[in-house]
Structure formats: C-alpha cells, structure tokens
Amino acid sequence: MKPSERRKARRLAVQAIYSWQLSGNNVADVEHEFLTEQKVDGVDVAYFRELLTGTTTKQSQLDELITPHVERPFDEVSPIEKAVLRLATYELTFRKDVPYKVAINEAIELAKAFGAEDGHKFVNGILDKIVGRK
C-alpha cells in the first residue's frame, strides 16, 4: 500500500463526509456517488470506504471526543473542519496502525486544502489536545 493511495482515500473521504453532513443522505448513497462520479485512480478504495463508514457510524462517539476541546459551540465549527476533525479522530481512535503524527499531518493538509485560511491551525490544536500533546 502506497502512502499516496491512503492520502487520496482521505481526501476523497473528507469530501464524502462533508457531503453526507450537508445533505443528510444515506451514507451508502454518498459512497456510491463518490465512487462512480469521482476519479478513483490511485485511491485505496477499501480505506476510503472504511473511513467514510467508520466516521459516519461513529459520529456521536467522535463528537464526544472532539467537543471538550472546542472553545465554541460545536454547531459553529465549519462543516469542512468538522469533517476533517471527525475523520482524523476516527483514525486516531480506531486505526492504531496509523501513527498519530501521520493522522494529524494528513488532517492539517486536508484543512489547508479545503478549509478556511487558518482552519488548519484550529484542526491542529484540537487534534493535539485529543492525543494529549501539549
């Protein structure tokens, strides 16, 4: 498995999670839409599926881990930052084979690519607190 295949899977998954959050559509429909309408060459499709399904099915549990570290109401966090935080928290919590530095770095890059100007700083701060780093 190439790291770039996982990176592409994360990128696609964060977009699918974002879409799911906004649309409220069934996650299986969102998955199908992304796999049929997006370019998936070089994407670890199995990892994409796991990230999307795991993040959406464990959303409440993930939000409980994230919320104590957010200094504003969680509803006010932008949807893209929520998607990135949920995906990264899923990896940090349920994918012990992914080093926390990799999960955090990938989340920062996703926040830079899709989020607000300083969204990556917000994401980094929250994830650092989740893993217990000061």
UniProtKB/TrEMBL annotation:
GO cellular component, one term: cytosol
CDD domains attached to this UniProt entry: Terminator_NusB
Residue intervals of the NusB/RsmB/TIM44 domain: 7-130
Any one Pfam family match given in the protein's UniProt record, by short name: NusB
Keywords: RNA-binding, Transcription, Transcription antitermination, Transcription regulation
SUPFAM superfamilies: NusB-like
Parts of the chain that traverse the membrane: none
GO molecular function: RNA binding
Entry annotated with the keyword Zinc: no
Keyword Heme: no
An example Gene Ontology biological process: transcription antitermination
Functional description taken from the UniProt entry: Involved in transcription antitermination. Required for transcription of ribosomal RNA (rRNA) genes. Binds specifically to the boxA antiterminator sequence of the ribosomal RNA (rrn) operons.
Stored HAMAP family: NusB
Family of the protein in this entry: Belongs to the NusB family.
Protein name: Transcription antitermination protein NusB
Recorded name of the encoding gene: nusB
